[in-house]
Amino acid sequence: MKNYISILFALLLTQLFSLSWGQTYSVKQIDSVLNMPYDDIVANTSKSLQLFNKVLSDAKKQNYKLGIANSYDKMALCYFYQSKYDLQSKYIFMAIDYFNQLKQYDKVASLYGSYGYHLKRRNLDSGILYMQKGLKIGEKHNAEYELRAIYDNYGVLKEMKKEYDSAFLFYNKSLTLKEKANDKIGIPYSLNKIGMLQLTLKQFAKAKQNLDKAYQIRLEIDDKIGIAENLNFYGYYFFETKDHQKSIEYFNKALNYSKTYNYNYLTQDNYQKLSELYELNSDYKTALDNFKNYTIYKDSISNINLRIKQAELDTAFDTERKEKEILTQKADLAVKNTYIVIIISLLILSIIVGYFMLKNQKMKTLQLQKENELKDALLKIETQNRLQEQRLQISRDLHDNIGAQLTFIISSVDSLKYAFADGNPKLEDKLNNISSFTKETIYELRDTIWAMNKEAITIEDLKTRISNFIDNAQLSLNGIQFNFNFNTKSFQSFSSRDGMNIYRLIQEAVNNAIKHAKASQIDVSLTESNNKINIVISDNGKGFDLATAEIGNGLNTMKKRATELKGNFKIESAENGTSIYLSLPNQTEF
């Protein structure tokens, strides 16, 4: 009902002004045109531009600067929806210039913010810069009303950049301003933004809490469209928490609301998600029914609605001119009506036939696409299985052949030692070194085979491996105290390569401390903070001068491993010991 009233208002307004197109609009009339509803402006941007050019000309005649500024603003909006981005930029900066002259800094902040938001799909980095400019001006002049939208939109840009902490910050800033103004319509919008971002980050409990708050407010104010939106969000929530039955229940509830109150975009989304869910539950018939409805709504939204609305506005603008033509052609129309009805009937029939042919073709295309996707998935699984078999075969060959040969070398060296080393300390030391090196090679080979046999190394696997290494070092070395601290929960697993790099880096750092530092205590720590895992290996040994010391292969190897892990690597050394720090981002959280 609200949409029909706004359309009627716009039609009556434009018709009134079209009657006096040759006259100069008064300031009051200029303001009336510039206050047209947003939906009516963007529904037919060509007609809207004609109107705004007229009021711009009349505002300039009267040196009405506020009218000039607002005209430029509305024209920039029209050019944006026509995808004429150069003209949009030109007019939005002309509007900003006039609002600066008028010292209406709240409008300046709003325009910079909206321009930055419009750039998000074309140039996200530039969009952020303009958004920051609007934000700075708005905060300087305490434009709280405009800052509500700027903070929300800036949060969206930060979320697109995957800077989630910043996105939360600005969503919460917007929420604070809305709560201060008791903005019952705006508060649920911010709560849902926060909740859906928390859902993306798998913070399910927090997400549910914010979605519940938003839903309760919308129930209290009886916001039908808002209720429909929140029911849809609950569908996504239960989908992400793997409760498919509840997800289907809430998407169906949202569908009933969105269809009842003509929220077509949400209706389209509900049908799409229901189709996916029923397909996951192997209910292919219901999945197909929902997908058909999704396709119908998608086509309707993108084509039919826009064309109907444009046709209505075109008719309104051309009414005056056509009325004169109708008076002179009225007699001829009576004869032509029959032919027109026939032509229209044939045209409608052609459209209906074409529609069903197109619909049938789309279904065939969709079916073929699904079949190809299934084939690709099966091929991918088969390839992965072959790769896994090859990895297992290689690891068996390494263990059975290389491992056996290394063991034979150790046995042979031991035999040589007993046979020839008596009374020859140098030879005995040399043979001992060869035996030790070979044993270390076997240990490293076992670690490599361990990693090869895993597609991923869990955090528990890594903890156990490091603990075993430290325990073995403790048993074989007297006079050195080892401490191992492990405290991380949200990190689940690493790729086999990353897990082995972490293990090798710790192993290399501990070996360096044992061989070179002459330490009495070595500490190894894995902890978690700020969504990062922090690894520290420290000793109380003699240390070395980082500026003058020659960097050996061990330190270079650790640096290379840190680079492969995309982590931050740092060494600190003094007379009282050396500490090695590695900070890794959480790339595997789920």
TrEMBL record:
Catalytic activity: ATP + protein L-histidine = ADP + protein N-phospho-L-histidine
Histidine kinase domain span: 397-588
Chain positions of TPR repeats: 228-261
Keywords of the record: ATP-binding, Kinase, Membrane, Nucleotide-binding, Phosphoprotein, TPR repeat, Transferase, Transmembrane, Transmembrane helix, Two-component regulatory system
Keyword Lyase in annotation: no
Transmembrane feature ranges: 339-358
GO MF, one example: kinase activity
PANTHER family named in the record: NITRATE/NITRITE SENSOR PROTEIN NARX-RELATED, NITRATE_NITRITE SENSOR PROTEIN NARQ
Annotated protein name in UniProt: histidine kinase
